[in-house]
């Protein structure tokens, strides 16, 4: 627990540094392109536009769980793109930032949350595009939309927990990154992004197991906020399980990060 408190203290004390480095990393990412960091806006526009043409006006515009398939899918796939970007970058974030941060007085813990800041702008743009699509379907804001902030908070805490563990294990175990990358591809289908767990064809036992996934919980919160008008506390058992799991992962991850980071330089 002491390690977790230390980790968050280091993050809070260095928020301005995290924002500056993340902004620099985003600009560097697109430095060889004529449009530069504008691609952070163009890519989401292309993604949402393509989904709208295909599923809103084209091949399939049916319903899933009482909602138009396009809205049902976008409500989850928008945060999923953020989760995917942060998760994949989180695997190597400490390893990639180690040479720079080891020469400064900044704690290595800021590298853990760097991907969250770097991917946030794209996530916000895609969320804005999704809301525009909602308006096109005649949807109007409700009080449940404020639950979006809770869903974002839950998503961020989950990703911080996984980044703490994954970034450490990537350095300690050489084969960890390719293994997790392969597993994460399967999560796209097993976290409810495009598969409806409420389908009658889904076996109850498999559904019950898949719904324990923290990724599924986060995506469900986004859908409940925009589409189903349900509060997170209406399913108290699932919410409690999620936060207990995330707390345990945070404690374990912070312990691993704090106790191994002095050895990272020797291991890379």
From TrEMBL:
GO terms for molecular function: ABC-type transporter activity. The chain crosses the membrane at residues 45-63, 69-87, 123-140, 146-166, 240-258. It is found in: Cell membrane. It is a multi-pass membrane protein. It holds the Pfam family ABC2_membrane. One of its GO terms (cellular component) is plasma membrane. Keywords: Cell membrane, Membrane, Transmembrane, Transmembrane helix, Transport. Its main location: membrane. Residues 25-226 form the ABC-2 type transporter transmembrane domain. InterPro entries: ABC2_TM (IPR013525). One of its GO terms (biological process) is lipopolysaccharide transport. PANTHER family: CAPSULE POLYSACCHARIDE EXPORT INNER-MEMBRANE PROTEIN CTRC, INNER MEMBRANE TRANSPORT PERMEASE. Belongs to the ABC-2 integral membrane protein family. This is ABC-2 type transporter.
């Amino acid at each position: 627990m002491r390690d977790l408190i230390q980790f968050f203290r280091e993050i809070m004390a260095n928020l301005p540094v995290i924002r500056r480095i993340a902004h620099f990393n985003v600009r560097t990412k697109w430095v060889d392109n004529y449009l530069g960091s504008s691609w952070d806006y163009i890519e989401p526009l292309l993604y949402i536009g393509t989904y709208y043409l295909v599923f809103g006006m084209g091949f399939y515009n049916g319903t899933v769980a009482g909602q138009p398939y396009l809205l049902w899918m976008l409500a989850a796939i928008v945060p999923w793109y953020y989760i995917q970007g942060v998760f994949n970058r989180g695997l190597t974030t400490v390893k990639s930032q180690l040479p720079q941060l080891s020469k400064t007085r900044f704690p290595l813990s800021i590298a853990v949350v760097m991907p969250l800041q770097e991917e946030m702008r794209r996530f916000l743009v895609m969320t804005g595009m999704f809301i525009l699509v909602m308006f096109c379907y005649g949807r109007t804001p409700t009080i449940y939309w404020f639950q979006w902030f809770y869903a974002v908070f839950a998503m961020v805490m989950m990703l911080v927990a996984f980044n703490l563990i994954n970034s450490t294990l990537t350095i300690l175990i050489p084969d960890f990154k390719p293994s997790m990358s392969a597993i994460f591809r399967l999560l796209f289908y097993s976290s409810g992004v495009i598969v409806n767990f409420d389908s009658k064809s889904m076996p109850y036992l498999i559904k019950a197991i898949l719904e324990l996934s923290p990724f599924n919980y986060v995506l469900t919160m986004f859908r409940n906020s925009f589409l189903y008008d349900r509060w997170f506390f209406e399913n108290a058992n699932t919410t409690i399980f999620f936060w207990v799991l995330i707390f345990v992962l945070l404690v374990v991850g912070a312990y691993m990060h704090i106790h191994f980071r002095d050895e990272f330089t020797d291991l890379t």
